[in-house]
Amino acid sequence: MSKKNIYDHDWLYTFLRPAVDRFMKASYRRFETFGMENIPKDGAIIITPNHCNTLMDALVVLGTFRDETVFGARADMFNKPAIAKIMFFLRILPMVRQRDGLRNVLKNNETNEIIVDTLKHGVRFCVYPEGRHRPARSILPLGKGVFRMALAAVSELGDSRNVYIVPAGLEYEDYFRFRTTALLSFGEPINVTEFVRNNPVENEVQLIEPLRKELSSKMSGLITYLPDDEDLAPSWALLKMIAAKGDRGGRLHERMMHNRDITSQIAQKKASDPEAFAALIGKVRDFENRRRKEGISIFSFGKSKPVLSLAGRTLAGIALLPWFIFCATVSLPSWLTFNVLKGKIKDKAFRNTAGFGVGLAMGIILFIIYTILSFYLLPWYWACLFLLAYIPSYYSFHDCLEFWRRTISDFRFIGKGSLKKMYGDILDEFNA
């Protein structure tokens, strides 16, 4: 019997895939893609997103395409044979990093052969060139692995098929809160075959370094990018303060581009007067510490008529209370399990992955249980109505929690004149 290839058809994978894609998209209040036209229709395709939200990054990429995608993940996840088999079933290959030791890095040669074979058969490959995840609005230095596999593919495929690296940017409204927003953007591809043809050099490094600079630049242009320095976190806080005053409508890509305009203004302020910018950043840090201590969302500061807005939100909350109680009751095993897991997760970036996993596993189990009970205890039409109402309950429950979190924030905001003045003074100083 011939050895099974990672891209071969698998009936169980094909059966489970629609449910996984559906639950991934349900894990976000809004999910959008941009720049799909930048992905070449033919050729060998290597997708390279930034890595900021653990397993959700892969699930977002997977759910964007209807056909197959093979992924790369850090090799230490494959140490146990049972886990390695599961990863192979999920179409994930081990990627050894330099920190894993030179001897282990040599194992990438075997992996690269599988990747080239995968590309040769028209299946795209997705790898995260930063080498590790980090929930930050920046890009880590890119490793050489993606370029070595691309060059190996060029060598193997020759002129029969072009090899492309397609930069991608993942943008989340929040890395740690469940049910926020997700945007996946694709940039203009890098034709590695053409690059090699136009740069006939013998030294691989001479090919990799310009490719790495180009890819890093293109990836940075697909997210709300901030320089990776000591001001990264307060600069993002300043951006949110400025954006809170703007229009939060429109498509996610439009929001991202608006945020990029603000990052440009921040960069100009920092370059023109570093001392004044440092003083401003100090005030932003003080503001953030106080805002968080008071438990007030940044969204509360952007409202021109906070009292009227609060009155409307309160009435809407009262009207939605029966739906909230229903959702909380029928999805209690799911959200309770999620809260228990969330409290035990040290890396907060894994919380969204936990929310997705619980929604998928518990959602299916509870649906089966509720189907049996409802059709046994209720007339068929009431049973169908109940099941239709149950399906969005886990996600609606989280939406209701977020609604009430912001409403409570608005209550706390009323009367916080000194904090509101602090916010206004920072914006006035920035715009001066």
Short description:
With 432 residues, this protein is α/β, with parallel strands linked by helices.
Describe this structure in words.
- This protein is an alpha/beta fold.
- It has helices at residues 11-26, 55-64, 81-89, 102-105, 108-120, 145-157, 192-198, 204-220, 232-244, 252-272, 274-294, 306-330, 332-344, 351-377, 380-390, 393-413, 417-431; strands at 30-34, 44-49, 69-74, 92-95, 124-126, 163-172, 181-186, 190-191.
- It folds into three domains: 11-220, Glycerol-3-phosphate (1)-acyltransferase (3-Layer(aba) Sandwich), CATH 3.40.1130.10; 232-296 and 423-431, no CATH class; 306-415, no CATH class.
- The protein contains 17 helices and eight strands.
- Strands 1, 2, 3, 4, 5, 6, 7 and 8 form an eight-stranded mixed β-sheet that branches.
- Strand 3, helix 3 and strand 4 (92-95) form a beta-alpha-beta unit.
- It is flat and about 70 Å long.
- The N and C termini lie far apart (73 Å).
- The model has no long low-confidence stretch (mean pLDDT 91).
CATH topology of the largest domain: Glycerol-3-phosphate (1)-acyltransferase
| Strand composition percent | 5-15%
**Global shape:** flat
Per CATH, the superfamily of the largest domain is Glycerol-3-phosphate (1)-acyltransferase
Question: Regarding CATH, which class of the largest domain?
Answer: Alpha Beta
Characteristics of this structure?
10% strand, 432 residues, Glycerol-3-phosphate (1)-acyltransferase, 3 domains, eight-stranded mixed beta sheet, alpha/beta
